[in-house]
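>> received
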Amino acid sequence: MNKLRLIVICFTVVFATACKDSNKEKEAPATVVETEPVMTEDMTPNEKKLTVTLAPKNGSNVEGSINFSESDNMVTMVGTITGLEEGKHAIHIHEKADCSADDGTSSGGHWNPTGQPHGAWGDEAGYHKGDIGNLVADANGRATISKMTDEWCIGCEDETKDVLGKAIIVHIGEDDLVTQPTGAAGARIGCAGIIE
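>> returned
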């Protein structure tokens, strides 16, 4: 009988201690510290991103989208265009984000804020800020574009660099990179306003 009493007492002490420790855990709420993110002078601003969609012009079947992004003062342009004839097609940035005309002429001429002659990008003789060059469409009429430069910005309000308010134009023909002022690229078959 003494053994049974001893077992009951031990069990009671263990149970009471366990319950007491369990209550302590419930009574101590977790501490949550909320902090605001801090922007320091050496941090770069958030990346800017923008996507534009090409509309067909001059009865073409051209479609596609072009993505612009800016980070660390570099603008990247990446896109895919479909509905083209196989071969080379000029692609330029034009003066105005106006694609209302059926032939795309409402977008104005090449974007040339520094008054340079038309030419190949990077040419020492000069080039327009909108002289991107040529796309090459495959047998399925699909072409891609990829360009990175520090000569553009997105919404920086520098008239010599800001692509906002301009238009992407795809032409039916190849830019010969010589003929002034357009490269003899022919009709405009795709247009997208570069707007937010």
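>> Residues 48-194 form a domain with the Immunoglobulin-like fold (CATH 2.60.40.200).
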